Amino acid sequence: MKKKILALIFLIFCVALLRAQEFTTLIVAMDDGTSTKVLLGSQPKVSFNGTTLEIATNTTVLQFDRTKMRSFRTIYDPSTGIGGVKSQSGKFIQKGDLLIFQNLPSGSNVRVFGSDGRLMRAATAEGSYEMSLSQLSAGLYIVNLNGISTKIILRK
To answer: Which one of 29, 58, 111, 153 is most buried, by most CB atoms within 10 A?
Structure first.
């Protein structure tokens, strides 16, 4: 009976996800009080495999033990969960998928992080430097230049 109820809830969730563009975030709440937010802009694939809820995006696969899940729901949440960084400004110019840095002091650290916090690109540079992001998919990234972080959006 519990499996049928979970399957029905999952079916309702999938229909709501397909029909309602305003849902941007899936929240999975666990019995231990923890919760995980999954951004739906990446169009994840959601499936039940045995006793596991699996959410697969282009870059990540999340798995949750269904026996320990309290609930899951979708909400409209335009925030990215990344705070404390400046809007696009700083000592670089973004031209498409190219970052152009100028007048960098010797030993400058340039790092690009994905919205999930993973390091995507890193370099040590000085003077003028160009970093290609052509191999990265479209999305939100954080450029950290010598400890100062800036959000950028990469469009393809």
So the answer is: 111
Cα→Cα distances 133→59, 107, 121, 143, Å: 16, 21, 8, 11
**Cross-strand partners of 113:** 119, 142
Q: Which domains are present in the chain?
A: 2-75 (2.30.30), 92-154 (2.60.40.3080)
**pTM of the predicted model over 0.85:** no
Residue with token string 């995006």: 57
Sorting pLDDT into bands at 50, 70 and 90, what band is 155? confident
